Amino acid sequence: MKTKLKLSKKQLFIDYLGITMGSILTALGLTLFLIPNKIAAGGVSGLATVIYYLFDLPVGITMLLINIPLFITGIKVLGASFGARTVYGIITLSIFTDLFQPLVPALTNNLLLSAIYGGVLGGLGLGLVFRFKGTTGGTDMVARLINHYTGMSMGQGLLLADGFVVALAGIFFNVEVALYATLTIFINSKTIDLVQEGLDISKVALIISRHSLKIKDEVLSSLERGVTGLKGYGGYTGEDKDVLLCIISRSEVTKLKRLVYNIDPEAFVIITNAHEVLGEGFKEAD
To answer: Is CATH 3.40.1650.10 correct for 202-274?
Structure first.
């Protein structure tokens, strides 16, 4: 029991450390690239950037003030599902943003470079926060509330919330800046996915063949990969068919295809990406 408690405390410390590091990276993306160049890339941080240039209010404090009513409304409407990590993420991002802004100068005034690197740095930070089961509030909460009241999907809610902020930037700054903000949002989301899913993209192979037993044995012995047999039937012929499911690395794709077609030149093979594979022979669960 003591060991389990120690492990849980250790994991909790690691999670909060990860959220802290993610908040620092996100704050640096804002202060080094986005805020100095008026790139309001959606969300609460984008809205706070617009307010900063209109009323000269600190971005971090503005983010905190916007997030407080959102958080309270979220708890009242959706229940206490946000938790302490959300509060911690909101506060740390706000503090680090206002801490860094007077200390770190903008690295470039080039809008394209700022949009790209601001999106990458912010995406790395938010990806870390999400990976350690945290959130920085903002657009996530808005999207959940929109979903609750209108029935829109989370993706549509996020698009609506971010689109509103970008439109404000276009009105109060200029259309060009708004276009760069859209680019930042795209890069940000892709970088978040990359952090969440990792670079090590495996491949899923589905093999349909009359010689499935022989192919299975060869995959097990030559590739030393596990194979799962699935039962299927031909939609046109109605015949029963064996479908082999196998997870392989990218470097093994050519070897698998050669192996299959040496046994059965008429085999039907589908190979697609698997962004995350957990289990024996691949990575362990976090």
So the answer is: no
